[in-house]
Design a protein that fits this description.
Number of strands: 13
Distance between the termini: 13 Å
Strand order of the largest sheet: 1-2-12-11-7-8
Number of domains: 1
Largest sheet: 6 strands, mixed
Number of helices: 6
Protein name: Protein ENHANCED DISEASE RESISTANCE 2
Structural class: alpha/beta
Shape: globular
Radius of gyration: 17 Å
Pfam families: EDR2_C (PF07059)
Helix content: 10-25%
Strand content: 25-35%
InterPro entries: EDR2-like (IPR045096), EDR2_C (IPR009769)
């Protein structure tokens, strides 16, 4: 991979925030009510309800490329996480690092109980019908299908989700990448509630990625 397009990378800020969704290659938080979650009485009636809010606030997004897998972004100097930590702030960060299938990867056999209940709800709100049908809007227990690697510090927890660990996921992502410039991708993250004590579910956070452009991804310099 060519090395002449390196730019300094402040992790958490390489994508612009645009609540109006008029700027291509930008992000904002998605409307929580877009997503259905398990309600207080789900074990009795199996009904899901619209989410009303999120437990955390989205503060940044990255669009990165590399010739190898990039882990523990939250622990890197210059990241939003480390800047807040240096200032002595009390903020805690939850980082979802979705690693595409083209990066080199290692195989991990370990799966934790956390991985078994961590859910992602995808939604293509604008774009090709083919992509919408392929992605769907059904909650996915990530740890049952993909390898998740965990990294943490005093003020953050990062989940590295390896798309390349699943043939099915690689196929879906490859399809999405083919239409990427014309898509609005929305996601919600949560922990599945399996018992009455764990219900109702609450969204940890939401994300909306607007018309991403693969050519504008920032090359990581290491």
């Amino acid at each position: 991979m060519a090395r002449d397009d390196f730019v300094p990378c402040c992790y958490g800020t390489t994508l612009a925030k645009d609540p109006t969704c008029t700027l291509a290659c930008s992000w904002t938080a998605a409307d929580p009510s877009t997503f259905l979650i398990r309600g207080e009485n789900y074990l009795q009636n199996r009904k899901k309800v619209k989410a009303k809010s999120t437990l955390m606030q989205m503060v940044g997004a990255d669009w990165l490329k590399s010739d190898k897998r990039e882990d523990d972004l939250g622990g890197r100097p210059g990241s939003i996480v480390q800047k807040y930590a240096a200032q002595g702030g009390s903020e805690f960060f939850f980082i979802v690092n979705i690693q595409g299938p083209d990066a080199q990867r290692e195989l991990y056999e370990w799966k934790s109980e956390k991985g078994m209940v961590f859910k992602l709800i995808p939604y293509i709100s604008k774009g090709s019908w083919i992509v919408k049908q392929s992605v769907g809007k059904k909650a996915c227990l990530i740890g049952q299908a993909l390898e998740i690697n965990y990294f943490h510090g005093k003020n953050y927890l990062e989940l590295g989700i390896d798309i390349g660990s699943s043939t099915v996921a690689r196929g879906v992502v490859s399809l999405v990448l083919g239409y990427l410039n014309n898509l609005v991708i929305e996601m919600a993250f949560l922990v599945q509630g399996n018992t009455s004590e764990e219900l109702p579910e609450y969204l940890l956070g939401t994300c909306l990625l607007n018309h991403l452009d693969a050519s504008k991804a920032v090359l990581v310099n290491q």
